[in-house]
Automatic annotation (TrEMBL):
<keyword id="KW-0418">Kinase</keyword>
<keyword id="KW-0808">Transferase</keyword>
<dbReference type="InterPro" id="IPR010559">
    <property type="entry name" value="Sig_transdc_His_kin_internal"/>
</dbReference>
<feature type="transmembrane region" description="Helical">
    <location>
        <begin position="275"/>
        <end position="295"/>
    </location>
</feature>
<dbReference type="InterPro" id="IPR003660">
    <property type="entry name" value="HAMP_dom"/>
</dbReference>
<keyword id="KW-0812">Transmembrane</keyword>
<protein>
    <submittedName>
        <fullName>Histidine kinase</fullName>
    </submittedName>
</protein>
<keyword id="KW-0597">Phosphoprotein</keyword>
<dbReference type="GO" id="GO:0016301">
    <property type="term" value="F:kinase activity"/>
</dbReference>
<keyword id="KW-1003">Cell membrane</keyword>
<feature type="domain" description="HAMP">
    <location>
        <begin position="296"/>
        <end position="348"/>
    </location>
</feature>
<dbReference type="InterPro" id="IPR050640">
    <property type="entry name" value="Bact_2-comp_sensor_kinase"/>
</dbReference>
<dbReference type="InterPro" id="IPR036890">
    <property type="entry name" value="HATPase_C_sf"/>
</dbReference>
<dbReference type="Pfam" id="PF00672">
    <property type="entry name" value="HAMP"/>
</dbReference>
<keyword id="KW-0472">Membrane</keyword>
<dbReference type="Pfam" id="PF06580">
    <property type="entry name" value="His_kinase"/>
</dbReference>
<keyword id="KW-1133">Transmembrane helix</keyword>
Amino acid sequence: MAFLLVIIPLYLWGLVMNQSGQEVVQKQISESMASRVHFYLTSLETELTRLTRLKLEYVNDDDLLLLATVPNQLNDYERTRALLSAKSKLYLLKSSSPFVENVKLYIPSLDRSINANNFDSAMPPEELEDILNPAHMKSPIFGMGEKLLMSGVYPDAVYAGRPPVLAIEIQLSRPEILRSLSSMAEGEGGGALWMDTGGQWQIASGVEDSLLAAFGEALRGELLNDSGESGQYRLESAGIDYFGASEFSPLLGTTLAVFVPAETVLEPLNKHRNWIWGESLVALLLAVVFSYWIYRFIHKPMRRLITSFRRVEMGDLSVRLYHGNQDEFNYVYNHFNHMLERIQELIHEVYEQQIRSQQSELKQLQSQINPHFFYNTFFILQGLVRMREHEVAERMLHHLSGYFQFITRSGAEQVSLLAEMKHAWSYVEIQNIRFAGTVTAELEPIPQGWEASMVPRLIVQPLIENAYAHGLENKLAEGMLRVTFREEGADRLVIGVEDNGESLDDGELDALRRTLALAEEAMEMTGILNVHRRLQLNYGPAFGIEVSRSELGGLKVLLMIRREEGRQP
């Protein structure tokens, strides 16, 4: 589309220039036709003016007037010689112009006519009447049937009704006029027309009878230019468009016109226009082919690359691109695939580092058995044995053995939530024996369906241990420890551990919150921070630990996990 938007203005500019050129050519053709009409009309005027002058000289010739006025005073020999001389002069007039077909001299006193081609004994009455018609004598040319005639009389007093002494008739050559008109027509289908403005006669060449009336009417109508200037126009007849040029001759009282079919005149231009349309179609085809080539070899591979980048942006690193051509896109695709492979390697390395870090933190947490708790437990156990509290001592040994068994078994990194809570409850039972009823522990049952969910090892017991160590250690009576569960949606569980210790102030609580927020940057790892880090490594940043002040008065720790079904090791 961008290619076409650039090409179309240039193409339209070319069409406008071609149209302008076509109009110029049409104007030049019309001017050429008008110039040709003017040339031929001028030639006719020159020739017919010369004939008019010779006509006047003949009717005033002394020898002819002598023959016409006193024929009876001449003997037969003189009369015969005068007739032969007149005939010779008429023949000379006829031969002086190709436009003259015949010349006749009418002598009323002899009641006969002299013909340049032969001898006539008498002129037909209708022909004599046309010659002596005052209207015809005023007109340079008049028609009589198929003939075009020029006439002259002596004396001019005939206009007053007096009979003439001498009358001359010049018959113009219709074939020669038609030949001249034919030479004016240009190209196949062209025609020329010569007519008087009164519509008494007309000579046409190359114009069919069906079109002659239309052309004559057009010339006598609004297209007729009486000013003597060239008239150029276009007219339509019988569904055909014509170029026309005409000129009126005031001297002859006639109009000369030439008509050429527009299709014939404009045929070279039409061919040129057809070539332009053909070139346009080829250009459009090339634009389509070029656009398809751009789409296939540039746009389509680029779109595949962008789509692949979007998939990578969504976290899909399994995308691979392959290109069959050995071009720039093949190079880009190969490096794109290499980049994804390298990213996967780096992610795998980081993931392994996180797993190793989680394992090391678990090992560290497992190794962090509080010596004070260890010593106190065995000291209490020793006291129970000495006081022969065998049942309590046996219960103490049962919970202690389960506690150390869970701590020292390092093969599994994840356990079921039920196993994790049993271990935490074993620790609570040991502490209950140790504190001898000064601390009351409340443990809610695990919500249905969560017992088999797999969780990281040692995530609840360190929080309970922290509650005893920092919140309930100095409690002499009425100590309270509470472990609760709250489901958030189908796959999220919040485990709460809270106490009613009195030693926590707001400053320590804010410091603990900041430590959890900067867990990744912390160098020293405590129990709560260790659990928080491992939960985020396992579930993501949306999970972990949040701390606040409990309604009981002490610290409240909320531990958030996600449901992950698995088989308990």
